[in-house]
Amino acid sequence: MRDLQAYANIVNARLEAIPEVVPEGRFAVGEMPWLLSESMRYSLSAGGKRLRPAMLLAAVEMLGGSIGDALDYACAVEMIHTYSLIHDDLPGMDNDTLRRGRPTNHVVFGEGQAILAGDGLLNCAFETMLKAAADRPDRALDCLLAMREIATGAGVTGMIAGQVMDLYCEANNIGDVNALQYIQRNKTACMFIYPLRAAARLCEAGEEALRALTDYGRAFGLLFQATDDLLDVTGDQENMGKTLGKDAESGKLTCVSAYGVEGTRALVERLHREALCALEPFGERAAFFAALVDSMVDRTK
């Protein structure tokens, strides 16, 4: 069984070629400007666990599929995640200056270029998936269904919806638990749920597998966010690689603000049980996902 780092290494090797590095000062029709390439790659290569693409690849292997057929979809998920981090750090959103232990994109390249780097990564993600689909005309429907899952998770009823309501609740001092659940399911959990569903589509898995992966992705994503909220209060900034304490300072709606520290820890335990329960249809094949959710309970970064 591969571990998280093994999957991350596979993703990183492929990401080295996407997006293409363009020489500085070169102005050629049909080529990416070097500044865009540099700013996109600055954030894309900044490290990180590659958690979401690794989970997509692990699900494909669990379901009997080929990593090679799924790799570009996994890389696209990481591009989308990275674009969301660039935009999340902007002055108009979280206004953060540290991400993955280094200055945020807008601090290095300026706000306008950072917006465009995020836009570039989002578009590059879909270009990458479309190219992969075009290379497999025999699997066209499966590829399109996988792309639709990823687009849904990242889109206006998924991650973007959660970000919109996160900003709205912060600006209007809304502390409603229903709002918190909506925000965290959409802003965080959707980018775990839908890459897993994309893996199921690529493997032509049945409805039982699709439901189980959806349930696992939801519980895992909510657990991940709950532990992230805890770490913003109890964590170490050097380990986390980002500014801590900003949620409480800005009045952001979080698990800790809604349930308190002990209530959030109880929530993490419940979601951990739900995630493991969702894996039961897969039996021993789900060992990677069981170990992964176990590791998230006591994570320090």
Largest sheet: 2 strands, antiparallel
Task: Estimate what percentage of residues fall within beta strands.
Answer: under 5%
Topology, number of strands = 2
Strand order of the biggest β-sheet: 1-2
CATH architecture label name of the largest domain: Orthogonal Bundle
Shape verdict: globular
CATH fold annotation of the largest domain: Farnesyl Diphosphate Synthase
The N- to C-terminal Cα distance equals: 24 Å
Mean pLDDT: 92
* Number of separate structural domains: 2
> Into which percent range does the helicity of residues fall?
over 70%
Number of helices: 14
Counting helices, strands and paired strands, the structural category is mainly alpha
CATH superfamily of the largest domain: Farnesyl Diphosphate Synthase
In CATH, what is the class of the largest domain?
Mainly Alpha
List low-confidence stretches. none
Please give the radius of gyration in angstroms. Answer: 19 Å
* Elements, N to C (H/E): HHHHEEHHHHHHHHHH
What is the gist of this entry?
This protein is mostly helical and 301 residues long. The protein contains 14 helices and 2 strands; from the N terminus they run ααααββαααααααααα. It folds into 2 domains: 1-188, Farnesyl Diphosphate Synthase (Orthogonal Bundle), CATH 1.10.600.10; 206-301, no CATH class.
Please characterize this protein's 3D structure:
This protein is mostly helical and 301 residues long. It has helices at 4-15, 34-44, 51-62, 67-88, 105-109, 111-134, 140-154, 159-171, 177-202, 207-234, 237-240, 246-250, 255-278, 287-297, and strands spanning 98-99, 102-103. The protein folds into 2 domains: 1-188, Orthogonal Bundle (Farnesyl Diphosphate Synthase), CATH 1.10.600; 206-301, no CATH class. Strands 1-2 form a two-stranded antiparallel ribbon. Helix 1 (4-15) crosses helix 4 (67-88) and helix 4 (67-88) packs antiparallel against helix 6 (111-134).
